[in-house]
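Recap for those who missed Tuesday's class. We walked through two folding examples back to back. For each one, the amino acid string is listed first and its predicted structure tokens come directly after. Nothing is annotated here on purpose, so try labeling regions yourself before you check the end of the notes.
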Amino acid sequence: MLNTENIQSLIDSGEGYNVEFKVRVPSKVRELIEEICAFANADGGYLLIGVDDNGQVVDTNLENDKRSAIQGSISEISPALHCELYSVNIVNKTVWVIDVPSGKDKPYIFSGSIYVREGANSQKLRTAEEMRSFFQECNKIFFDHIPCHWFNIYTDADEQMIKDFRTEAKLNPSTPDKQIFENLEMFTENGTAKNGAAMFFGKQPEQKFPHAVTRCVLFKGTNKVYIIDDKTFGGSLYQQYLQAMSWLESKLQVAYKIEGAGPREEIWEIPLTVFKEAIINALSHRDYYEQGASIMIEMFDDRVEISNPGGLLPIVAKNFGHKSMTRNPLIFGLFTRMHLVERVASGIPRMQEGMRDANLPEPEFHTEGMFTAVFKRQITNPANYGTVNGIVNGIVNDTINENEQAILNLLVTTPGLNASEISKYINKSLRTTMRYIKTLQDKDLIEFRGAPKIGGYYLTKI
């Protein structure tokens, strides 16, 4: 219980996040209980009855029936909340104090509603997004923690996914799967597998979670008018990551730098590491409660956009790039175990650093409703074999001439051409073209595939 000196100090400090003044008990006691519920859902606080908005103490008397009404209404808060109600004398005037603790069992609900403190005011949460954000901040209801009654991890899991996880997580081969699953907290208290376990290890979790997929779309131009390619990837979240990365690699421009007899260095127009960070971020942090949208990877002539449902949680928005709070701690933890996440809150800085190191503009981030990362492409004209960060799009090798380089560039964008077709493209005779082709084959840069009459030339596998 606070003494006179403590109460006077609170009054002198004025109303705020933890203090609310009331001249008297309102005619509708529920208005008082809404304030109490909001304090319990925050850090606790004090309702001082007998103090006006200016901090002036006015003598008040709280009859037994009023006190009983307040205590009775407090009992309607769920889960049960114990508050102290007592009086303190301030300069011969009585102030009644309702001492509200910071509840340990958040969220507290009164009359079917959740109330929270916003600065010096109490607010009712009205939208689903507000409620989800609050529940998540309270570590209360994460989508990936919900019991998944249809999934039996011992009979329904993808065995290859379990093997991949064990390998990437560097787990002891002798450790039983059961022990690993239990150590990873894949089950609820009553032994039911969680949603996160089904999405991470299930064979086809999209059959039950149709929104938990990754869609990849390639557009012609810089708007969403003409679609060139459209793929939707399901399966385990790790498989979605691998398939999305593979799709991106098949669409991005790449150069190969060759020095002597050493291995060829791949130089991508945008570093693949930034896409790894963005895709893992999307799979880990998306709002899986939102069933009307999926993760999107959209490629345009001038940019690549990676989006996931759900804006930033409030604590993350205030400290963007420095604080991390995931909507799906189980999924995020599994990716971390596979060493696909280096450290908490490192994803945004690593994307920024990766683009800077490649002399590219830093990614743009849009955080309202959908979280979108935008990566600018720097190809001047991909159809005409432009440059990728100053390197010719294709293979760069100081030991080949410009005609051989032209053939390599051609096969980057138009693989499978025969010698006659190549000769027309480079405007050389067939005999001369065959000589260039022979040189490139000897250097193991290109190879012929298919039947002699219908086959063509391709870049060799890297």
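Example two. Treat it independently of the first, because the proteins are unrelated.
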Amino acid sequence: MKHRGAWLVWGAGVFAYMVAVTQRTAFGVAGVEATERFSATASVLSVFTVVQLLVYAGLQIPVGMLVDRFGPRLLIAGGAVLMFAGQFQLAVAESVGAGIVGRSLVGAGDALTFISVLRLLPAWFPARRIPVLTQWTGIIGQLGQIASAVPFAFALHELGWNTAFIGAAALSVLAFVLALAFVRNQPGCTVRAPRTAHDGGSLAAAWRQPGTRLGLWTHFTIQFPGTVFVLMWGYPYLVSAEQVTPAEASLLMTFFVAVAIVCGPWLGSWVGRHPLRRSTMVLLIAGAMAAAWLVVMLWPGPAPLWILMTLVAVLAVGGPGSMIGFDFARTYNPSTRLGTATGIVNIGGFAASLISMYLIGLVLDVLFNTGFSGGDLYDLAAFRIALAVQFLVMGVGVAGILVNRRKVRAAMADEGLHLPPLREALARERRRRREQRRGAESGRESGGEGGGEGTDQG
């Protein structure tokens, strides 16, 4: 432990992030009720989500600069206030415009929270713990999606629109109180945020750092496939194109969350042990995603359930894997601009998700209007062609990773740190382990004769 009280500070921050995810996803379970309340079509209702995501993505860099300037405590509390206002506005809104204002406020408050919670970690925990805690921050935060899917949905159906959304807003009040009571920007900071010298060029400096750009392209490349699948196109693809039952589709979505929870801490631990091989892991995850989609798309007819489960499992790894991008930002930037660098990274995955969601829908519409789909918008062949857009987006991301990894390693070489090829590193690791085993066996053999001298492998 780096400082006393660190777990309490982190716990209050993570609770605020979990509440933010609850507010972010609450509208997703209210589609039927929203259609009736606002007398709106499905396309109009989709604007609620698009605007919310655009506000969230657009604020990432400004929020990063603000957290570097004022510290995470103020922003976490401010985010809770904005989300309270947004959910309360939505509770009383009776027009589409008023509802969109509410969702915009929720998106803004959500944007203030995640970066700020990550910004707490370097101040309160030793560096070796941060990769794992970053993963746990994401995992615990995503439990907010369960809160919106179960208790909020129950309140919505049983108690009505106003009561459910006011109840959701009340969670942000609790997050606000806990943030003020327990969150501190750094040890020894009681109430005021410590004003550090603010670098007016922090955004430019963070962007010039190839490690920041490597983090952005990491998040861009492996976060979006799972996001696109879970938030928009996965369910209609499974039910309408692959012809699985709604119950099986729900099971696959639950399986997605379970895999992400299980693999997240392992990935964080792996990154902590092998910090110089993070980009290799990212490329392996991207390759696995592309291979899984290729198998499904080339399968003759609807894919069997076990193939779809494999696809979902691989896509689920992308969420925890994309958190490696934030570790790049932390590693290659000083603490004075860490929030700015984190904001740059975080915009990557959401930009890729919005681009992919739009392009997939566009291709589906084109194939439908040209008659390729045979009158079925979600025809299996048409859906597979549309989903192939992801290969293009992923290819752009992989190119960005390779270019910036080369620059990062060149900068490391200039500082005297030469990273050997992976093949050589693995061979050296095998030799080291063989030597350790031989040394242990030799020690056991000589131990019966009074013990031998140990060998320091360095």
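Answers for example two:
Residues 193-200, 448-458 have pLDDT under 50 and may be disordered.
The chain has 18 helices and no strands.
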